[in-house]
Each structure stands twice: as structure tokens, then as C-alpha cells.
Amino acid sequence: MGIDDILLYDETVFKNIDAFNPDYIPENFLHRESQMESLAICLRPALRGGRPVNTVVLGSPATGKTTAIKKIFSMVERNSDRVVCVYVNCQLHTTRFNIFSQIYNKIFGHMPPETGVPFSRIYGNIMKHLRDEGKALVVALDDVNYLFHSKNANKIFYDILRAHEEFNGVKTGIFAILSDIEFRYMLDKNVNSVFIPHEVIFDPYTTEEMVSILKERIKAGFFPDVISDELLEEIAERSSEAGDLRVGIDLLRVSGNFAEADASKTIEEKHVQEALKSTGSVSLKSTLKTLSDNEKLLLEIITESEEDNLVAGDLYKAFTKKTSSSYASFDRTLNKLEFLRLVDTKFTGKGVKGNSRIVILRFNPEEMVKCMKNI
User: How many other CB atoms are there within 10 angstroms of residue 222's CB atom?
Assistant: First the structure.
């Protein structure tokens, strides 16, 4: 099929190609019932005129955190006008003005003036409205670690959580969404004293859970019988190996595109293989971008090691040659890499108290080096 034929071909395997987009919110949100219940419990006081419970929504990438927040916020807004729910992507909005502009827009239906109006007036208008209308405010800060990179996190948290000190009766809360297990140690004491969050943990999906989620996505996105159960299992296995559901969703979309380019009404093995070649490192790069400098350094040491059985103690010695980190700090950094499913660790039963660990890289070293050079 030529280029003109590809562009003008009317037949399609897609019923709704948007079902494979990163921001798609599935109607059936599977395997996150307990997390949704926890989020509902944290929001319930606000529905009854109280203050929402501050919450850290914690989990590795592609575990449903953002989807859960958007779905629970939608449910709140359908059932009550007593709570203003604002979702903010901190990769896009990192300054006080930008964050509070998103809150202002949600409340008043338009953005505040970009010039000529001091921040204090925008902030005051928001809080006075909440006070006068008797409404609570819940702000979800997604990828909140970006606020720390811009050094704005403490001020933004303070502005939101201590609003009641200046505007009596205002009730505010924060849902901080992130993949950083060290987050709670990064806030100033005067912010931590009012934040005191409840934690909602999103564990990685199992392969079986990925299969059922991808089945739902296939049902929503493809026409019937476009892809076989065997190919679905293969795609789910690839997704599980990468530790990232987005890999499977993207493979489905790209495989469908290759099938259409081939004028095929079904996705075949060759289309999946073509998709694997073109999408292999996308999700890995997105995870690597979230790492701190020390986390990247430790991952580089692991990747460059020629040891078949890399022992954590030896890794610590190599790490301290390049940093001044304590063992506790090293241990937290290693745990973070394991939490993000970049490495695995296995206890050997040897060493002090039988706690010696072997560190295993989950990805091909050459692929890891290539991805790290391109972030």
C-alpha cells in the first residue's frame, strides 16, 4: 500500500482510537477499588462541611494514580457543590501564579489577568469566595516533585494549607501525587506540621491485572475480533516486563496503526513485532526523567557494573566514591529504584544478620545507557 493509499484508506480497526491516549479515563476502572475507597474517605469530611484529609497518592508510574484522582473528583462534583476539586499537572505548572491561576479558573470560569494584578489579590479572591460560599478546596498536585525542582513546593503548600489563618473558616486540602517515596522528608517543618498526610499506595499491576485492563481497553478502542487473546497475552507480558501498563496500551495503538497501514482488518504477530521495535524505550525514558541526580548516578553505576551478582555492599562503596551519602541515604535511593521497577533486589541469606542483597537491573544495559543519554 502506497503513502496516498495509507492516508486515504477508509477501513479502520479502531472503534475509538482515543481509548489508547494517555489521558483517557476508562469507564471501568479495574483493580483500584480499595484505593478509590481510601480517596473517598479522605474527601468525605469536605462533603459534610469539614476539612478534607491531606493525602499522598503514592505509586510507581502507570499504576492508575492520576486516573483515580480524576474519577473521584468527577464523582464528587456530580454529587455535591460544597467542594471545589482542582487537578493540576505540575509538569506544566510549577509557579505559585500558575498553580493558583488553575484554581482561579476552576472557581470563576476564566483565567486571572497575567499582568497588572498582584498575586495577593488573586489569592484573596479565591479564598474569600471559598469562605463566603462555604465551600472546601481540594487541590491535586500531580507529579508534585516538579515543584521541588523549581523550589516552589513549600510556599505553594503553605499558601494552600494555612489559608484558614488569614481567611477564617476556609477549609483546604492537598492530594499530592508522586512516585517519590522520600517526599514527606522534603517539606519544611512549618508545612509538615499542617500537612500530616494520609498515604494511599498504588502497587504495580500484576500481569493478570494488566491482561484484564488491556482487555477493557481493547473493548473500548477496537472493533470486535481485531486482536487475538494470544497476542493480548504477549503484549501484557511485555508490559509486565517493563513494569509499565502504558507500554501495553501504546503497543495496542501502534499495532493497530500498522495493521491499518497493511490494509488488514486484524492485528497480526508481525504488526505487534513492528510496534515493539518502534515503542520499546518510550516508557523507560519517562520513568528516568523523574529521577534525582543521585538516583541517576546509582542507576548508572548498576548499569555499568560487569558483576553478575552485584552485592548491595559493594554497590554502596562505589556510590560513596562519587557522593558523600550515608548508608541510610544509599538504601533509600536503592529502594526508590526498586520501587520504580528499574531494579530488583534479592536477599541471599548471607552477610550481617543474613541481610545481604544482590541487585539486578531489570532492563538490557545497552538499552538503559541509550535511554539515559537521551533524557
Answer: 25
Tell me the DSSP string of 23-37. Answer: T---SS-TT-HHHHH
CATH for the stretch 3-22+206-280: 1.10.8.60
| Phi and psi, residue 86, nearest 5° | -125, 120
Per-residue pLDDT of the chain (375 residues; tens, 9 = 90+): 454 454 345 578 999 999 999 889 999 999 999 999 999 999 999 999 999 999 999 998 889 999 999 999 999 999 999 999 999 999 889 899 999 999 999 999 999 998 889 999 999 999 999 999 999 999 999 989 888 877 899 999 999 999 999 999 999 999 999 876 666 557 888 888 899 999 999 999 999 999 999 999 999 999 999 999 999 999 999 898 877 899 899 999 999 999 999 999 999 999 999 998 877 556 677 778 878 889 999 999 999 998 888 999 999 999 999 998 888 889 888 988 887 778 888 876 555 444 578 999 988 888 888 888 877
Alpha-carbon gap, residue 297 to 283, rounded angstroms? 20
Which residues, in sequence order, are CB contacts of 113 under 8 Å at separation 6+? Answer: none
- The DSSP annotation for 160-196 comes to HHTHHHHSTT-EEEEEEEES-TTGGGSS-HHHHHHH-
> Contact, 353 vs 366, CB < 8 A?
no
Domain 33-202: homologous superfamily in CATH: P-loop containing nucleotide triphosphate hydrolases (3.40.50.300)
Fold of 286-373: Arc Repressor Mutant, subunit A (1.10.10)
